[in-house]
Amino acid sequence: MENFVITFARGFGTGGKAIASQLAKELGIHCYENRILTLASQLSGLDENIFQEVNEKMRETSGFSSFLRGLPRSRRYISRNEKFVSDDKLFEYQSEIIKDLAEKESCVIVGKCADYVLKGKPNVVSIYIEAPRAFCVNRTMENMGVTEEVANATIERTDKFRADYYEYYTHGNYWTNPVNYDMTLNSERVGMQNCVKTIEQYLIIKELITPDMIHPAGELK
């Protein structure tokens, strides 16, 4: 079976990253988020402290993947208090990395306009995760240990940054446009684990995976 890629866009606090990670785990593939930005930072010469690094495990053992594996790891959350500032060269590097990953392996890619970068490819499924503000605020308060006021401000700032970023690099498209995605899921109504199951069933329908490729990895809440 050929490589497939699932891209995720998500509102802050919706659990979209957790859903993406769980999906990748159950399918036995890698989930890429800020590793892409860290690499783009190094290639562009921008300060890599603005990037967040996750999971160091890579399938490949040389070249591109070897370089990725050597990147620093940080669990620190970086709050975006700044306004969106474009860096076309960074996006160019980032897009090359996303296309390279899509060519080399099946994977999950979170954010980074990946749905746009890989638009039109038949082996790509794009997902948008959203949820009511109260749900997002409660998750943000719990996960970050902040007040309701800080949670609301963080959600508003981060989602504004993501929307501006998406609009700029897609030349006027808007981030929440349902036409951009194969499906939009409400993580509160559907449930986190059921979002994973729904996406897996869609991948089966699209003949990108078979049922025996799914390996349940515990309940996601």
Number of DSSP helical runs:
9
How would you name the oligomeric state of the polypeptide chains in this document? single chain
Q: Total strand count, please? A: 5
Low-confidence stretches: 50-80
Main sheet record:
5 strands, parallel
Order of helices and strands: EHEHHHEHEHHEHH
Beta strand %: 5-15%
Describe it.
It is built from nine helices and five strands; from the N terminus they run βαβαααβαβααβαα. By secondary structure, it is an alpha/beta fold. The chain has a five-stranded parallel β-sheet with strand order 2-3-1-4-5, sandwiched between helices. Helix 1 crosses helix 9 and helix 2 packs across helix 4. 37% of the residues are buried. About 14% of the residues have low confidence.
Secondary-structure map:
Elements: E1 5-10, H1 16-27, E2 30-32, H2 34-44, H3 63-69, H4 88-104, E3 107-110, H5 114-117, E4 124-130, H6 133-144, H7 148-169, E5 183-186, H8 187-190, H9 192-205
Parallel strand pairs: 1-3, 1-4, 2-3, 4-5
List keywords for this structure.
single chain; 221 residues; alpha/beta; five-stranded parallel sheet; 9 helices; 47% helix; globular
Question: In brief, what are we looking at here?
Answer:
This protein has about 220 residues and is of the alpha/beta class. The protein has nine helices and five strands, in the order E-H-E-H-H-H-E-H-E-H-H-E-H-H.
